[in-house]
Write a structure and sequence with these properties.
Length: 486
Amino acid sequence: MISIRTKIIGYSMVLVLLINSVSFFLFQSSQKSGDEYNAILQRFFLLNDLSMSTKSVYESLDDYLLDHSIDKFDIYSSERQKLKRLQSQLKPHINQDIVVKNYYYLIESFLGECTVILNAYNRNEIEVYSSHLTELSRISIYIQEATLALINHELTNYQTFYREMHKRNELFSTIGIIIFVLTILISILFALWFSKGMTKPISLLSKAAKEISTGKFDGPDVKAPTKDELRFLAEAFNNMRENIRRLIQEIKQKSELDNLLKEMELKSLQNQINPHFLFNTLNTVSRMAYIEGAERTSDLIDSVAALLRYNLGNLDKPTTLKDEVAVVHNYFFIQMTRFGDRVQFRTEIDESCLSLPIPVLTLQPIIENAFIHGVESYEHGAVLSLCVYKKNSQVIIEVADNGVGMDELTIKRLVEQVDRVHSSQKSSKHTGHSTGIGLINVIKRLQLFYGQDQVVEIQSKMDEGTVIRLMLPCVSESEVLAKDHV
């Protein structure tokens, strides 16, 4: 997704880069033209200075020959040094132009003649320095003529340079106008594209919001053509409208269901059996069996009544491990009455652990599950045991059987159900005798009750049996209540 901010920054950077690139190109070209123009002017000034300096050297030498004073000689020496300095500025150009090279060596000959004349004068060789003075005058004239020729040559080059510079300036002006027009067109196109990408989805969102405000929730989805925040906003709006539509549908369905439930409540009241009446009836039968001498039948009815009373009690309130163990004993007694010597029930209980608070109907579903799926099919030799003990800061409850066991795939599937958030809802269907509460449901209630995930271990092998091990923290009832309030 490219955000609106990124688009604006990107466009601004491209525009600034384009303008700066063109400006830099124009500046470099203008700088180059200026440098060439300055170089031509410097050559003009140099040639003019050389011509003037040659004339000054000749005149100062002639003055010295006439006067022969120290001041005149100093003037000559100064003018000669100036000429040599100007001549050295020609040296970088002598390999580029043959005319400049000849001019350079003509000045060199002029300076040589000056030296010859001065030496002959000092030796009083009048004829020698007179002839060389004449030669010096002729060389000076040549230099003046050569200077004019070079200046004329430079002027010719300057005319060519001026025409090229004029064409270049016209080209730069055309490029500048084109860039200016292109920049305006790009800015207009971007503004139209950007505004269309923003205003169209906003208009659609505004229209859809007005429809929702009037109670219309079945309109088409708002679609944003751009990949930016507006697309995310449109998708969020569409999801919100869909959620509202679904919630309204659910409310309607719930309202219809409530009406049906109210109608069914009256019919259900006519078919309900009062639990207290059932318990009282079982107690009466138990006392009659005891009076008639059927003590085992009386104990069986008492166990059934206790089990029913416990299962029909308030499942929301916690109980103690002691009550859970008592229910398991009643369950054991009922099953031993049914199956006789086919199954043995064993218990090993640490009495110090029985005060542990625990959710209602925790042990019976596990015992029931072990009996039904583990040992119920055995004709003899079936063993089902319950063991409770302390280990470190935990109360360990082990339910073991020597039944058919489970393979690794079944154990893995069962562990994955335990770890799944909604596994308790998915495992509501199971085979049981009394509670209707599955093993996964018990484990999920234990996790919620104690506020921890690791509450169970499952060990099993095919044809060797299964061990369900609950690992519960040693907490008091007050700590559990405080946690519930929080």
